[in-house]
Every structure is written in C-alpha cells, then in structure tokens.
Fold this protein.
Amino acid sequence: MARPAVAYPRQTPIVDPTPSTGAPAYPSRAFASFLDDLAARFAEVERNAPKVRVSFLGSNGAIQGTAQNVTSVVRSATGTYAVTFTQAFADANFVPVAMPRNASGFFVTRINAKTTSTTTISVYDSTGTAADPSGVEFVAFGELA
C-alpha cells in the first residue's frame, strides 16, 4: 500500500534575498514578527516567574543553597519563620507558597502574616502542634516594587 502524499504549507523565507545588489539580507517581516512574539512570550514568563525563592533548615532557619531576593530567614519559635525580602513587593497582593520538607511524618504550613517585605510562616505536625520540619521551601509570586 502506498503512503498518501502529504502537502506541507509553503514556508516563508527567513530573509529577503537581495542577490542582485550584493547588499546584506535583512530579516523578513514574518521573521521580525516572530521575534516580537518571542520577546513578548519571554516577558510573560518573566512576569509570572517567582520573585522570591528560598530553601531553609527547619531547626534554625539557615538558608540552604542560593536564595533569590531573600535577605534573611529568622526562626522565632518552634515551627515559626519570618522570611524578609531584599526587594519589596509592589503591594500585599502577592502570593506566598511554603512547603515543608521532611523524611517522615505529615506537616502543614500556614502563612500567618505578610507585608510587602516580610512573610511569616508556621509549620504544624499531624497533631496540630507547632513543629520544625527538616526544611522549608518557600516561593512568592507577584509584582516587585
């Protein structure tokens, strides 16, 4: 059985050929439009990327690895941490997300308070008691000031 022929759409050339003048070829309008669209998509990705990222130890709040836009993490009590941002958010409508990290057991995080420059996180074990997990992963999304 013969395979049916597949018709592919004609591709727009990437550059406008100018062989008669020997002048350099410039991007075609279609290619320029593609580049504009690509730049807009990268801008959208940047706009939606987390503006704060940190991983820290539950026992003392020590930052692990490289943090993004974080000045400090302070453990003020068992299971309670304040994350201070290097650059503040534009308003308090940003979205903080905290995830406990532990080898065993079940932990829950709660965002207690947030200002444009600090977020306070509490961590609880399965009985509802404040507890220090092995670590905490924290990110925040929003517009920076």
